[in-house]
Amino acid sequence: MINIKNIKKSYGDITAVDDITIHVRKGQLFGLIGPDGAGKTSLFRMLTSLLIPDEGSAVIMGYDTVKDYRKVRNILGYMPERFSLYMDLSVEENLNFFATVFNTTIEENYHLIKDIYKVLEPFKDRRAGDLSGGMKQKLALCCALIHKPEVLLLDEPTTGVDPVSRKEFWEMLKSLQTKGFTTFVSTPFLDDAELCDEVALIQDGKILDMDSPQNIAKKYPHKLWSISASNNYKLLRAIGNYEKKKSAFAFGNSVHLATANEVEIEEIQNYLKSIIDYDFEIKPIEPNIEDAFMELMKEE
Amino acid sequence: MKPILFVMPIVQLAVLAYTADFTVKNINIFIQDQDKSTISQGLINKIDASDNFVLTQVSYSDFDGIEAMQSNNVDVILSIPQNFSKDMNTNSHTIVSITADAINGTKAGISINYLQNIISDYIKEYAAQKGMVNTKAGIEIVKRDWFNPMLNYKYFMVPGILVLLVTMIALFLSGMNIVREKEIGTIEQLNVTPIKKYQFIIGKLLPFLIIGLIEFTIGIGVALLWFKVPFVGSVLLMYLFTTVYLVLILGMGMLISTITDTQQQALFLSWFFSVIFILMSGLFTPVESMPIWAQKITLFNPIMYYTEVIRLVMLKGSTFSSISFHFIVISSSAVVINILAMLNYRKTT
What ipTM describes this predicted complex? Predict the structure, then answer.
């Protein structure tokens, strides 16, 4: 469906996208996860034919984004990182405008956006600029969908959106998947990753790893423990000095400790008992994609 | 925002037409009369009676009013010498001195000119009264100003201000437009649509063309109804030319918009061009009095053509055949500029 092959883009001395190869299958919800400045937007702009790659190619449904850019623009539904609808047009006018530009009407493809648009319908006469962040994203998604694209390219759609709207947004993406859309979405949030079928972890223009979120988590090389105590600060300091630690960081109310695989629970217990004089609880946990990504980033 | 677009032309016309006046009035004059005769008093009375001069003070001593000029209370000093009346009566050579504050060169020049006219008129009248042969009255020039017989400067300025209005609106609206979309980011979304370049440019052009024509109509309305400027020529021809001219100016705005990245850059470029074009358009100073190299540059100045055409058609009633050169220049530049804007508008970066 989307074939990105050895694509490269640099701005002067800075290489934004460095030899990236990604393959997205039809019907997949594919996540591109990485911190700000990793090269996500540059990659998206190349996929949408807005930026011409220095090397390599991107082919969407058999159409090259450089040679067949006209075809590509017809089959894409693109949501840029920055809200890009007309702020001074109303909700309905925006939708109508983008439908018209693609030679279609709202009525024709209303079934695609019905679930999302019904939330917006009460505000359809409101100016897009006056909507809340979450509402804006919903409208942008509607506008990207209104011409019945084959592929959805969403560049950081959940950045700057509150957690509830973010969750809703992902639910929408999931339900769009059942309608047969192929979605390529980028996000800086690691917890978004678990909702994707497959993710690529990107940093400094390079892909660190690419697999299903479960498999990436499984690749975590260490044993992970969750330790909680009444005084986290002291605990963290004690763990910080532990010679067998690989890494340690505060995680909510507990501390996550990574050790080599051969380390047993008794060893840690004995060590901690020798240092702190109050109760603590320790249990082994399954690493998730977040732990895996942190580890990968550290290796780099 | 909307009312501004339509209130602006009216205010602009109303204010500018009254203020952009080349006739100089209220010139403060100081007269030093050392002659102290009835003849010199007659001259003072004549100057005092003129619309253009305000007599601030008359001095019959050595006091020459230079301080008053330094403190900006006096624009012109006329000094009448001691033996003025004697020289007048014996018809011999006499010197009166005129000193003008040339901080404002135009005003000084015009003031001296007015004063000279008054003085020579006075001398002529006096000589005729006395039955003397006036040495200067060899040839009398009778002048007549065609197409604007009263030399009403408003007939001349109002169409010119209309030109400014139409040009500024068109240039700035279109110049800011695409670059604004670049700034806000809406262009990003639009660029991935299958919309064609020409559709995009036409879509940008048409609304502004309509706004421009509405502005023009309002302006013409104010000119005819309020300032009673005559409209001798064909209204249809004027609209035809204005439409073509607007397409050219809008195309220039588009071009500016496509080559800049921020509204600030676009604003600077638009100002740069509009100031040069306006000052070199013949709107305020005649093109014919510019140096030759500048006259050659004005051949590329659309405002110059439009200013000429609007004055020709409105005041003189020129028909298409007399403005066909203007028409060809403006319409062909409109085509070229818009094609350039279209080519320069890139969907990719």
Answer: 0.76
Among the ranges given (A289-293, B54-58, B201-205, B244-248), the one the predictor scored with the smallest mean pLDDT = A289-293
Write phi, then psi, for A32 (nearest 5 degrees): -110, 110
Asked whether B244 and B302 are in contact (CB, 8 A), the reply is no
Domain residue spans in chain B? 27-130, 153-344
Spatial neighbors of A138 by CB under 8 A, at least 6 apart, are A116, A117, A119, A120, A169, A172
Contacts of B193 in chain A (CB under 8 A): 73, 98, 101-102
* Residue B55 burial by Cβ neighbours in a 10 Å radius (0-12, 13-18, 19+): middle
Distance CA A165, CA A295 (A): 29
Q: How far apart are CA A9 and CA A195, in angstroms?
A: 29
Nearest residue in A to B346, CA atom: A50
Round to whole Å and give the CA distance between B347 and A94: 20
Walk me through the domains of chain A, giving residue ranges and CATH numbers. 2-212 (3.40.50.300), 220-299 (3.30.70.100)
How many residues appear in chain A? Answer: 300
Query: For B137-145, what is the mean pLDDT?
Result: 59
For chain B, the three-class secondary structure string (H helix, E strand, C coil) is: CHHHHHHHHHHHHHHHHHHCCCCCCCEEEEEEECCCCHHHHHHHHHHHHCCCEEEEEEECCCCCCHHHHHCCCCCEEEEECCCHHHHHHCCCCCCCEEEECCCCHHHHHHHHHHHHHHHHHHHHHHHHHHCCCCCCCCCCCCCCCCCCCCCCHHHHHHHHHHHHHHHHHHHHHHHHHHHHHHHHCHHHHHHCCCCCHHHHHHHHHHHHHHHHHHHHHHHHHHHHHCCCCCCCCCHHHHHHHHHHHHHHHHHHHHHHHHHCCCHHHHHHHHHHHHHHHHHCCCCCCCHHHCCHHHHHHHCCCHHHHHHHHHHHHHHHCCCHHHHHHHHHHHHHHHHHHHHHHHHHCCCCC
pLDDT, chain B, mean: 86
Can you list the alpha helix ranges (DSSP code H) found in chain A?
40-47, 69-75, 91-101, 110-120, 133-145, 163-178, 190-193, 213-218, 232-240, 265-275, 289-299
Task: Look at B349 and A51 and tell me if their CB atoms are within 8 Å.
Answer: yes
Q: How far apart are CA B68 and CA A82, in angstroms?
A: 65
CA distance B82 to B80: 7
CA gap B338, A102 in Å, rounded: 25
For chains A and B, CB pairs below 8 A equal 49
Residue A42 forms contact with B (CB below 8 Å): no
Q: Of B177 and A296, which is predicted with more confidence?
A: B177
Over the stretch B75-101, which tens digit does the pLDDT of each residue have? 899 988 888 888 888 777 778 888 888
Strands A63-64 and A55-60: antiparallel
Which structure tokens are listed for A292?
């895996």
- Residue B349: which of A50, A73, A98 has the nearest Cβ? A50
The CATH superfamily assigned to B27-130 is: abc type-2 transporter like domain (3.40.1710.10)
CB contact under 8 A, B348 and A52: yes
